[in-house]
Amino acid sequence: MEVEVITLFPEMVEQGLSAGVPRIAREAGALRLTTRNPRDYADNRHRTVDDRPFGGGPGMVMQAPPMVASIEAARGIHAEAPVIAMSPQGAPLNQAWLQKLSELPAMILLCGRYEGLDERITPHIDIEISLGDFVLSGGELAAMAIIDGVARLLPGVLGHKDSAKEDSFVEDLLDCPHYTRPASWRGVSVPEVLLSGDHARIRQWRLQQALGATWLKRPDLLGRVTLCDEWEALLADFIEQQQSVRKVQA
Ligand code: SAH
């Protein structure tokens, strides 16, 4: 996948994506990352790309000409790529978005700064994505979050081909708890089922724990899915176990 990031801070994006999974994805050729700085398209000696807002008010606004010139240059290389602007007004980022984006051959991510973009840039934007209901000082962290989340979904990037399939949110459920060596530590042992070698039981335990974690921590997610009879029964059993633990503790 080809990703181009239009940003006033290309070194921030480059550096942030030069470790861990994004780095592996880049080295494997699954992810090709380029950056483009709107300052290179400024029409003045000082490479200024922002100016005061018409009508007054605080802060500076990113000017349309250098931003749109950057978008057009990026489009010249990645003709079919959607232009995705980072914006607190965009669609909230979630796993379904990452999955959809990871299937694209290319995308162009646009990072704002200051008070935001001149409105005349908007017709050149296809999608707006938000990291959440809060305001950051720039779009770079949002672009990096998208690229990190997408990189781990690209074919061949994660060691195990099913790793990403069992993560939180993939089936509207949170992930199950994980354990590694030592099997017993500070008097706490790993659940016996995980040492049993019985893969059917392990799968069932993990599913039940995932359902339980979602019920405990994010009940809103469970409201979105219709549980089949098996999942319903596993969750009912989890809830009952929780209640008996509470009774013992009381
Ligand atoms: N005045 C704007 C905020 C501008 S913040 C408003 O209130 O809507 C400057 C830039 O940071 C934005 O252009 C955007 O690219 C980025 N940004 C800020 N918060 C963000 C968020 N929650 N998600 C994605 N990008 C964000």
How does this structure look, described?
The chain is of the alpha/beta class. The protein is built from eight helices and nine strands. It has helices spanning 10-16, 20-27, 64-77, 95-102, 140-151, 199-217, 219-222, 229-249; strands at 2-6, 32-36, 50-51, 61-62, 83-92, 106-110, 127-130, 184-185, 188-189. The structure holds S-adenosyl-L-homocysteine.
Concise account of the structure shown:
The protein is of the alpha/beta class.
Using only C-alpha atoms, the radius of gyration works out to: 23 Å
Structural class: alpha/beta
Distance between the termini: 55 Å
What string, H for helix and E for strand, traces the elements in order?
EHHEEEHEHEEHEEHHH
Largest sheet: 5 strands, parallel
Tell me the fraction of residues in β-strands, as a range.
Answer: 5-15%
Low-confidence stretches are: none
- Quote the average pLDDT: 96
Report the bound ligands by name, code or SMILES. Answer: S-adenosyl-L-homocysteine
Q: What strand order characterises the main sheet?
A: 2-1-6-5-7
Number of strands: 9
Helix content: 25-40%
How many helices? The count is: 8
- Approximate shape: elongated
